[in-house]
Specification:
The chain has one domain: YaeB-like fold, CATH 3.30.2310. It contains three helices and five strands. The mean pLDDT is 94. It is 26% helix and 30% strand. The chain starts with a helix and ends in a 16-residue tail after the last strand. The chain has a five-stranded mixed sheet. It is globular and about 35 Å long. The protein is α+β, with helices and mostly antiparallel strands and 105 residues long.
Length: 105
């Protein structure tokens, strides 16, 4: 059985499908997250949380630096023919540690 990280990379090579929520988040004036940033983080980022029981199917949270070293989080779900991007956001320091990889409790 392949890892969720491998499944994300494999699905990314096929097609990206963005949920309306992810498009809204990317287009928010205070964020303006580009498609190239999303692809970069999905290709080179690291899975920091795994959600095998997610209602949308097995999904995960990917972290990586985007342009100008801006941290991004992407929740995605690899499918057989595509990678579903569920949401994209800039993590908030009040909820994440200084590396943006561990939630504050």
């Amino acid at each position: 059985m392949k890892s969720i990280e491998d499944a994300v990379k494999e699905a990314l090579k096929k097609k990206l499908l963005f949920t309306p929520h992810s498009v809204d988040q990317m287009g928010s004036p205070e964020r303006l997250i580009t498609l190239s940033e999303v692809k970069e983080v999905l290709q080179f980022g690291k899975v920091i949380e795994d959600y095998p029981e997610d209602k949308r199917g097995h999904s995960c949270l990917v972290f990586g630096p985007a342009s100008q070293n801006r941290p991004l989080h992407i929740v995605c779900s690899p499918k057989e023919d595509y990678l579903a991007v569920i949401t994209v956001y800039v993590p908030d320091r009040k909820n994440w540690d200084e590396t943006f990889t561990k939630r504050k409790r």
